[in-house]
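Need a sequence for this fold. Nothing fancy.
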């Protein structure tokens, strides 16, 4: 009888340990999936023909710059920073979602930018603003101008003036890393 009880105790402990390990593995998988689903490492905004377009996908953004339209979108009349029609350019995966779309969540302040965030904002004035933080992007969107910046005239892909947006912490340094990232993202040497 003692051997039977000891066997049951050992089997229970082994099952319990296996359950804990399985639970831990599932938690690790959930963390990696949720991090991948955040999609908060980049954001692109474009003023075009009186509308304000927002993208969280570089390919969709580039397609819009080429074609001037997006295949899938969510539109909010009067939802832009200055009352413009706000258009979120969506991927085919995002078009079916009712929530959890990174561009919408970041634009509305519900999702923070990643530590290695990259953003671009294109105005109709020919300027291309480049960001290393979502907070800087939100400030420029709100104010309409970047108080701290490093500007390169005619350095953009179509000869735009490129404005690298800085902040109080990095205002005295040339944004070498951000400039390299911009060139890499836009296939420039």
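Here you go.
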């Amino acid at each position: 009888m003692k051997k039977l009880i000891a066997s049951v105790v050992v089997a229970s402990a082994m099952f319990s340990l296996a359950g804990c390990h399985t639970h831990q593995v599932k938690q690790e998988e959930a963390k990696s999936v949720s991090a991948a689903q955040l999609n908060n490492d980049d954001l692109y905004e474009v003023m075009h023909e009186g509308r304000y377009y927002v993208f969280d996908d570089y390919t969709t953004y580039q397609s819009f710059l080429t074609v001037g339209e997006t295949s899938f979108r969510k539109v909010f009349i009067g939802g832009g920073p200055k009352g413009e029609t706000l258009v979120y350019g969506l991927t085919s995966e995002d078009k079916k979602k009712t929530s959890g779309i990174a561009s919408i969540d970041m634009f509305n302040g519900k999702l923070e930018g990643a530590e290695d965030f990259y953003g671009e904002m294109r105005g109709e004035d020919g300027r291309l603003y480049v960001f290393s933080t979502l907070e800087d992007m939100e400030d420029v969107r709100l104010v309409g101008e970047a108080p701290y910046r490093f500007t390169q005239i005619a350095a953009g892909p179509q000869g735009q003036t490129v404005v690298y947006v800085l902040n109080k912490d990095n205002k005295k340094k040339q944004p070498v890393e951000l400039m390299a990232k911009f060139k890499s993202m836009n296939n420039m040497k």
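For context: The first strand starts at residue 42 and ends at 48.
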